[in-house]
Amino acid sequence: MITGLLYRRFPKLWIPVFALAALVLVSLPFLQLWLMDKGYHGRWLDAPAAPFTLPSATGDVISLNQFAGRYVYLYFGYLRCDGYCQAQMVTLFLLGQQLADKPVSMVFVTLDPERDKPEELRATIDNLVMPHFYAVLPPSLAAAQALANDYQSRAMREGDWRSTTYKIAHSGEIFLIAPDGNIKLVYTGEHLRADEMTDDFERLIAKVGEK
Hints:
This protein has 211 residues and is of the alpha+beta class.
């Protein structure tokens, strides 16, 4: 009754009121994500990580399950990437140095198993001089894409597939997987900072310790 009276007396007032209400409803999911991300430099997720068991550059088999009790930074890229792959690898190297005394492993999954040869991947890992840095070598591009898709990470070959100069367009996320098997944080962009990721890690393990 009161609402009807107000509507008759101030009909133009209700247009912005309804628009504001609609805006609030649409913004609720994004507001929730913002609140969840608050305090972290990466995007908070806390969703199950897709399991995998794939060959490594050393000829062994690497499974996500073998990292039980450790935190894993998982990255999809390839050696001939002329984008931000190299910057991401440097970031992981610096991050590994800063977290050297923590239960942390780095896993690089090549999206270009046809050109990234095992010896090249081994040389790259050896140059990083990190005992807990692993290179995963899927048996095919399709297998690499399938695993990337499981993590909702984009990966698509561009250019003439018959040429050896093709590129692989990929979104370049780094996923932080906790010992409970969940992806806790996702990092995107080429301007990642190892010190910010270290800050996130310290905050995350402190939060786990409070439980």
